[in-house]
Amino acid sequence: MDLADSAEEAAFRREVRDWLGDHLAGEFAEAKGLGGPGREHEAFDVRLAWDRHLAAHGWTCLGWPEEFGGRGASLHRQVIFHEEYARAGAPVRVGRIGEELLGPTVIAFGTPEQQRRFLPPIVSVRELWCQGYSEPGAGSDLANLSTRAALDDGEWVVHGQKVWTSLAHVADWCFLLARTDPAGSRHAGLSCLLVPMDQPGVQVRPIVQLTGTSEFNEVFFDGARTGADDVVGAVGEGWRVAMGTLGFERGVGTVDQQVVFRRELAGIVALARSNGAIEDPVLRDRIVRARIGLEIMRFHALRTLTGVAEGTSGPEASIAKLYWAGFHRGLGELVMEVAGAGGLAADGPPYELDEWQRLFLFTRADTIYGGSDEIQRTIVAERVLGLPREPRP
Q1: Tens digit of each residue's pLDDT (9 = 90 or more) over 210-241
Q2: 18, 60, 88, 233: which could join 55 in a potential S-S bond, CB 3.0 to 4.6 Å?
Q3: Do 265 and 338 form a contact (C-beta atoms < 8 A)?
Q4: For 129-236, which CATH superfamily applies?
């Protein structure tokens, strides 16, 4: 991938930068920096209004084809937007699960009727989505799930439990995997269903995290119902659809994640300068290594995204997940060392954390969510290095 902007791309970068500069003002001036890991609770209504403001000006779903409400933006332009968005300190989006995961899945696997029904409200940020994959006994081993669904009087009836369901407490819909063929084993007999959240058969329970916030939830489906046609892909082919969704999860949105990492590192450097920790040669060396690590991460991500755009991506996404998760967890550890003993005390009772304490605590989960390190290493070992497969029960 050519990392240099062409003249047209440079003009697009200026357009994005100028628009964000003009619109992150007035009622949205205080939205800067809101949201993020362990901070998804912050000013939700303001961030939702900001997302809808983006939509009204054509800045949502950039990479989607124009016929589905997007701009058909090239990969490079999508990268530019995400970089400038993060650099502007714009708030973390609340509609990202629909835009980055469910929408592309419906475009790739959905029927024309599903595309007409579900895509426009994602573009306009009028319906929010959550993802129902993990279960108490089926996290990284997703094929072991036990949530089941059966047809009854023209509707799917869903029973089961999902866990670690991000933003389920604010979502209008959930796309979930359920076993629709009881005779199927493992990957066979699963289906991807679209289930409305606002109904008697759905109960959402927040999970309190180390940060004291509740971005994640457990969701119970006890007779929840959805239409017989609300299946993405063919009935029984949910595994194929789910793998497609996970491929989209490793998409261009990871670029702004890295710019956030860069902003966090800049804050750590400022903290080290202010408290004198920068004079410690060991800490200074670790800060330098973190800066180098960011550049490596960016180049690898862009190379991986090029493969996605060309349809040649493979286990590189697992390598990227391993790299950024370990990097970010290390960044959380680094800031606590820079902060020193004072970083161990909360700002106030009973549990008032500062941004660095919250960063440290949340990053402990980076090597678990989105595919644990153990699973990613297995994928790399078997699919890249050609090592023997792990014994399966």
Answers
A1: 888 888 899 999 999 999 999 999 999 999 99
A2: 60
A3: no
A4: Butyryl-CoA Dehydrogenase, subunit A, domain 2 (2.40.110.10)
**Which residue carries 């990202």 as its tokens?**
96
CA-CA distance, 284 to 339, in Å (whole number)?
13
Active site (catalytic) residues = 249
What is the predicted pLDDT for the residue at 228?
Answer: 97
Q: pLDDT tens for residues 281-317?
A: 999 999 999 999 999 988 887 777 766 555 445 567 7
Question: Residue 126: CB partners within 8 Å, gap ≥ 6?
Answer: 52
According to CATH, the superfamily of the domain at 7-94 is Acyl-CoA dehydrogenase/oxidase, N-terminal domain (1.10.540.10)
Confidence check: pLDDT of 159 > 90: yes
Q: What are the residues facing 158 on neighbouring strands?
A: 149, 224
Segments in the chain forming alpha helices (H): 7-23, 44-56, 75-87, 96-97, 103-109, 112-123, 238-249, 253-275, 281-310, 316-339, 355-363, 373-379
